[in-house]
Amino acid sequence: MDFISSSKIEVTRLALDGLYERQKTIAANTANVNTPNYQRKDIVFEDKLSEIINKEELKDKIKETNSLLVKNQNYKPIDELLEKTNGADVKAFLQEDNYSQFKVETLMDMSKYDNENNNNVILEKEMMDMTEAAMRYNILSTLEGRAFSGLQSVIRGE
To answer: Total structural domains in the chain?
Structure first.
């Protein structure tokens, strides 16, 4: 079993960063509930995070396939095998740092809402969104903490 991997740590870190930004944005929306003409904002990052996860899984599959090729061809260098298979494109893909491409997007909610301030902040919705983001953040941080705790126990020999 893989207790911890750098890709899992990175993905969790990016998700926590995205959720943190979402919480800050929801807090700003809530603070502006009575601000005339305020347009609420939203944070999106899940699609980008999913894309990063898919790319990293593809990298792992390519590496596994090439490892099998190395084993079956008397341990020829991986560079030579990459050139024989898909060339420099695969090598560049494998060396690409997908995590650094992660960016949280802030979107303006342009929907109209009829209220006395002529803004589109609905306090109840913001509170529900804040609760959901906080729960997701707590779940991820708890799981990450447990993974590190398990790793610490293994290191200590417990």
So the answer is: 2
